[in-house]
Amino acid sequence: MIAVSTSRWRHKPTGPSLWVWASLVLASQAMGQYAVKWSTIDGGGTTSSAGGYALSGTIAQPDASPVSAMTSGSYALTGGFWMPLSSPCLSYAPADFNRDCHVDASDLECLTQLATGPSVPYNPQVVPGACSGLVPVDGILPADFDADKDIDQEDFGIFQRCFSGSIQIADPTCAD
Ligand SMILES: [Ca+2]
Ligand SMILES: [Ca+2]
Ligand SMILES: [Ca+2]
After folding, report:
1. Alpha carbon 80 to its chain's center
2. Cβ neighbours, 10 Å, residue 99
């Protein structure tokens, strides 16, 4: 944790930091009555100890969250994380077996290779190459949507409801 105080700034600002610093100074001069008295840049972590000493650190832990905002008067400060650019969806559809936010031909290939037929059980420990990364939960493969230990037309019907193609983002509630 790095505590930053406008009255106890010890870091020499450069580049973008200098711009932010200058903006804060100009803004505070222009408005007069506002001040950021302290803030932290946290980085997650844990406690390290040796002998009689202990050091605790954090990384990327917001001080204010949407659940517990810092408020004063009519103002509120909330914090949180931005979603990574590589993941365009907030959550995955159950038929998005390869977790690329689309239910498309790749997922269909996986389902096809897993198909057993009605009342023909599959071996949850044997997953074909097109389904690499598919992990059974309590002996049920994610492609077995109705959890009856086969992969048949019933499961394919649910897959059809989830099918989005490779452009549209798949609906996470499609199997509900
Ligand atoms: Ca997919
Ligand atoms: Ca069945
Ligand atoms: Ca099934």
Report:
1. 11
2. 13
Q: Are strands 47-50 and 75-77 parallel, antiparallel or unpaired?
A: unpaired
- Tell me which residues have their CB within 5 A of the ion that is ligand 2: 148, 150, 152, 154
Radius of gyration of the chain (CA): 26
Q: What is the pLDDT of residue 124?
A: 94
Q: Phi and psi (nearest 5°) for 140?
A: -110, 125
Spatial contact of 74 and 82, defined as CB atoms under 8 Å apart: no
Give the pLDDT confidence score for residue 86 in this predicted structure.
62
Distance 165 CA to ligand 3 centre (A): 22
Burial 36-66 (b: 16+ CB within 10 A, else e): eeebeebeeeeeeeeeeeeeeeeeeeebeee
**pLDDT mean by block of 10 residues, the chain; 176 residues:** 40 46 50 70 66 70 62 74 66 94 96 96 92 91 96 97 96 94
**What is the distance in A from the centroid of ligand 2 to the CA of 122?**
11
Domain residue extents for the chain? 2-77, 86-176
Task: Specify the pTM.
Answer: 0.53
Give the residue carrying structure tokens 């059980």: 121
- For the purposes of burial, counting CB atoms within 10 Å of the CB of 73, is it exposed (0-12), middle (13-18) or buried (19 or more)? exposed
